[in-house]
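Good morning N.,

You mentioned wanting to compare the apo and holo forms, so I went ahead and generated the holo version with adenosine monophosphate. This is what I fed in:
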Amino acid sequence: EVNTAKDSSMALPEFLGKAELLKQGAEARVYRAQFLGKPTIVKERFKKQYRHPVLDEKLTHRRTVQEVRSILRCRRAGISAPVVYFVDYTSHCIFLEEITGSATVRDHITSAQQPDSCPDPQLERLAQRVGQILAKMHDEDVIHGDLTTSNMLLRLSPEDGESDLVLIDFGLSYISALPEDKGVDLYVLEKAFLSTHPNTEALFEKLLKSYAASSKKSSAVIKKLDEVRLRGRKRSMVG
Amino acid sequence: MQLTHVLELYPDHSVTQMLFKEVKNAAELRQKAVEGKIYAALINPTMLVNPLQVLVAANKAVHLQKIGKMKTRSLYSEIIFNLSPTNNISEAFKRFGISDGDDSVMVVLVHNKQESKLLSDITALVDGRQVQVEDVSSLSDPAKIKKLYKVTPQEEKSSTLLDAVVCRMATKDVM
Ligand SMILES: Nc1ncnc2c1ncn2[C@@H]1O[C@H](COP(=O)(O)O)[C@@H](O)[C@H]1O
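and this is what came out, ligand included:
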């Protein structure tokens, strides 16, 4: 037991040193590795030098807990999200199932979208499913916080052929019942969607329609979305 | 026949699982474990879906031991505690530990690289037939597992039972 402290501080850096770095973000690094014999994504939140260490530790811990809670809440409601294999609250690492054999919704739309932008029934179907899943997520009071088409994965299911839509990256997520928070969540997606995929206003409209039809509490959310849009527009007119 | 996995985070620790059926001396084994004469976790396989479940519990136990934050007194009781969805230690033992009348048992050991002596010692103590560890799924009781872990019907449609269980085990401290 002499080397316990040293062991525990060395285990993770050594492990991550051998892992494949997928993304170096502002708050976290994302790695790919084998863990418990499974293809795993490791998300490591690191220290922010400019923040007070005690505050930084608190915020980082809270974010890690929120991410894990949101994933579990979604999964309980039947929304696909990566399995959590392990959480290290000392180094703020989350070990998640890697969604293998998947493509992002972003790549899917980009490759499926035709240059003449005539409506594609399959893309419309996808937009509807995204709307339904986000409605279900908001009905569980999970706010994703960073909705983009890159944070939605399509995994081909071997059984029924229809691909499974998996939500990822709950790093900015939190729990809230406020229509305003849900409206902003959708607004973030709208901004990202329309800038990533040009000429998809009609497609996004389908998504929202399907959201509105699936959620029990959608009317207040859509109203807030309209307000947030208006604010956004006013701000851009002033600025 | 047993399954040994080197923990990726703690490569000097291996987890070995051994499954026995037709066990006739469960009471004696349990007594020896209580007295500290068996250094292993003795688990009732009906609550196990898959060997991965045990690996998740063992990895977490070794981690908490390293950082000095175990909730129970030994690594082996911590493995049993980690399998349970609740924070009630005695309930964890009741559900996941073996009982005197059990006729099957999953033995879980954490050890250094080559400790075949440790494994053969345990094998010698068990009066039963060793089978493939993967056979554990044929002994599990999905209805009981779903109830204990509170797996919802919606969740069952979009997830395997194993994934639902593992996710709860890994996150129970913040739920
Ligand atoms: N669970 C996962 N399965 C597969 N790929 C993932 C997973 N989580 C993250 N990624 C990939 O890693 C990138 C960065 O992760 P994130 O910071 O969580 O968005 C994502 O855009 C995905 O391409």
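The interface with chain A takes residues 5, 7-10, 52, 55-56, 59-60, 63, 66-68, 152, 154-155, 157-159, 163-164, 166-168, 170-171, 173-175 of chain B (CB under 8 Å).

Happy to go through it together on a call whenever suits you.

Best,
F.
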